[in-house]
Every structure is written in C-alpha cells, then in structure tokens.
Amino acid sequence: MRKLNFVILFLITFQYMQGQEISFYEDNDESFADVKISESLIFTCRVGGFQNKGDTVVLLHGFPETSRMWKDLIKVLVQNGYKVIAPDQRGYSNGARPSKVEDYSIENLSQDIINIVNAFEEEKFHLIGHDWGAAIGWGLSASQRDKIISYTALSVPHTDAFGDAISNDKVQSKKSYYMYLFKIKFIPEIYFKLFNYVNLKRLWTSSDQSEIDSYIGVFSQKNAIKSALNWYRATSLSRSKQIGDIHVPTLMIYGKNDMAIGEKAVDETEKYIKSSYNLKKINSSHWLIQDSFNFVSQEILNHLNNFKNAIIL
C-alpha cells in the first residue's frame, strides 16, 4: 500500500511540475504539498484525493488552529471521491510568515487562497471555512462567485452581519472583547507563551493530545503566534469593507454554546444569501469539528453532494 501511495504521489508531482512549483510528500500517513507562490510565500497544505475524479474542496482553518483540524474530514472527503486542499494559511506556514502587520490584511489572506488554487490548476472549487477561515470564506464567496461551487461556514456568520453585531449587539460586543486585546502589541504573545504555552493550550478544550501537539509544533516556531495575532491587528470587522450578498449555495453550522459568536449575526446572515441557504444550529461549542464530527461531516458531505460540479464514479 505504501508503494502504491508513493507511485500516486510521484505521478501527481509529475503532473504539476510543468509551470508549477508544488512539492508533494507524506508524513505520518498524511499527504502534504508545499506550494511556492513566491520566494517569500511557500504554503504547506494537507492534500488528498488527487487520484479522484470529483470536485476540489478547499478547507480554511481558523485561530488558533492549522490544517490539522481537518485531518479526519479530509479522509471522509477523499473516501467520497473529492480532491482536497487544506493550506496552513499565511503566518501559519513556516514558509509564508511575513513580518509586517499590513501583510495580514484580508485582501492578502484572500488572494493567498486564489493563488494556491490556481497553482493546482483548479478552476472551480467548494469552499469550507471555520473561524477566521470562515471570515475569509465569506469574502471569497462574495468576490469569487464564478470560482466557488458551494460554501460552508462553520461558526462565523456573514462578516457584514458579524461586524454590525460587534458594534450594536451587547452580547456579541462582550464576546468579541478579546479581539481588541489581541490588537495590543507584545503582551498577547507573552501571555500565550507563558509556562510552556499553558494559556494557548487552554483554548483547545475539545482537541485530543495528538492535535494539541501538532498545534504546539507550529506555534512554537519563531514568530508564529505573532503572525497569527496579526490577522486581528490588520483587521477591524466592526468597520471593515462590506462584502455584500452571497450568490453561491451556502451551508452555515453554528454551535449554540459558542464562546466567541452570539446568535444575533447568525440569525442576520440569511438576508445576505441570494442562493440556496441552510442553517444548522447544534448543541456544540465553537470547536464544531471536534465536538460534533459525525454530524458536521455528514452535513458538509450532503451539501457538497447536492451541488457537486463533477460526476463522481
């Protein structure tokens, strides 16, 4: 089986060598690709299913996680005929960690995803995002409607609704107070690094030890925590540019016990969707994939299958 996997990876690598700088490899029974966009932007991506005939699915993680959060979902999607690309995004990939706060603008973060997908020569794709990944996903769904087949947002509602709720809803304003603390220079980094990252580890209430170890392996790298926090420092959701209506089929899954997201913006999201829309509120925390994997993965699979672009054999 390992020889077969090697042959498949070799063939895939050969396929993309011409005109692209993508290096495929395996590590601990997972498949990866390092995607070189420029000399200063090399993204590490978890990948799978490139031998499949189905649509491509792009998975965007949030804070403070990496593509590791998608490990089990990648397996499900590949088993059901899909191709999968799950990047460690800007600041999380060791080879894509610029130093300036303005490097982490939503415009740059969004363009990264388009550049990565283009490197794989995929014209259309399904998009799934959690937390910050969902915020990037909303913007891409609005601006790249011709490329995105369907969108799934986990936890974070439409960013126009979310920004309005941060400014005008007392519940959301209180839940989002931490975002303003993260904008302070230096102190959040020190806080998360104290006593062998004990305060960072406290955030992963639903992750197993293997997942936590993987995250610490990334966040212990030089400037990784600073870069992840720069997403907050470069953005003001309460006064950000409005992205407007969404014209792609959308699934929203929200955990009613979410410590960071109130229901106001979730309920307001529907008015921005001008295509098929399905909202699922479940008894879960912010960490939907870890808390409710079977339900969430099945809902995602149903959504993808309902709007798939390719015929999966």
Structure report:
Helices cover 42% and strands 19% of the residues. The protein has helices at 2-17, 71-79, 106-119, 132-143, 159-168, 170-175, 177-182, 187-201, 209-219, 224-233, 263-268, 288-291, 293-306, and strands at 22-27, 30-38, 41-48, 56-60, 83-87, 125-130, 148-154, 250-255, 277-282. The chain has one domain (2-306): Alpha/Beta hydrolase fold, catalytic domain (Rossmann fold, 3-Layer(aba) Sandwich), CATH 3.40.50.1820. The protein is α/β, with parallel strands linked by helices. The protein is globular, with a radius of gyration of 19 Å. A 9-stranded mixed β-sheet has the order 1-2-3-5-4-6-7-8-9, sandwiched between helices. The protein contains 13 helices and 9 strands. The model is unreliable at 6-19 (pLDDT under 50).
What is shown here, in short?
By secondary structure, the protein is an alpha/beta fold. The protein has 13 helices and 9 strands.
Would you spell out the secondary-structure blueprint of this structure?
Blueprint: H1 2-17, E1 22-27, E2 30-38, E3 41-48, E4 56-60, H2 71-79, E5 83-87, H3 106-119, E6 125-130, H4 132-143, E7 148-154, H5 159-168, H6 170-175, H7 177-182, H8 187-201, H9 209-219, H10 224-233, E8 250-255, H11 263-268, E9 277-282, H12 288-291, H13 293-306
Parallel strand pairs: 4-5, 4-6, 6-7, 7-8, 8-9
Antiparallel strand pairs: 1-2, 2-3, 3-5
Number of domains: 1
Rg calculated over all Cα atoms:
19 Å
Count of DSSP helices? 13
Mean pLDDT: 93
Helicity level = 40-55%
Query: Under the CATH scheme, which architecture would be assigned?
Result: 3-Layer(aba) Sandwich
Largest sheet: 9 strands, mixed
Please provide the count of β strands. 9
> Which homologous superfamily in CATH is the superfamily?
Alpha/Beta hydrolase fold, catalytic domain
